[in-house]
Amino acid sequence: MSSKPANSQVNRYKVSWEEYDKDIRILANLIKKGGDDKCRVIYTLSRGGLVIACHLSHLLNIKNIVVDITPLMPYPILVVDDVSDTGKTLKEKVLLWRSPHITTIATLYRKDGTMVEPKYTVKTINKWIVLPWEE
């Protein structure tokens, strides 16, 4: 996620465990419907995407989660993160790496104006997102 806004109490959106559970299942179903559950590896960005990647790995039965991709990884890769905020991190860590094996990008949430539009996302939330495990 990006750095916190100056007045972080005003522009916060707190995601409850119930909302998270519903949203992660929606995301998994979107990925299944799109056929990208056939990926053999989930690549995630540490720390933000770790919980989501683990949960999706169970829901999609993708057993391999990595936080570092080597150019020699010959498997279809599903890139997962919590939020596509500005998109800067995804662009730097994923798109500029240019792996031919990156199949798609999925984020639980996105913000308007992001540089990287994920193929799969559940909601657009234009506030500082606080996930249940972050409190």
Concise summary:
By secondary structure, this protein is an alpha/beta fold.
Low-confidence stretches: none
Q: Give, in spatial order, the strands making up the sheet with the most strands.
A: 3-2-4-5-6
Order of helices and strands: EHEHEEHEEE
- The CATH architecture category equals 3-Layer(aba) Sandwich
From the alpha-carbon coordinates, what is the Rg to the nearest angstrom?
14 Å
Helix content: 25-40%
CATH topology: Rossmann fold
Shape: globular
Number of domain modules: 1
What's the level 1 CATH class? Alpha Beta
Give the biggest sheet.
Answer: 5 strands, parallel
Q: How much beta, percentage-wise?
A: 15-25%
Distance between the termini: 15 Å
Q: Structural class given helices, strands, pairing?
A: alpha/beta
Mean pLDDT: 86
Please provide the count of β strands: 7
Number of helices: 3
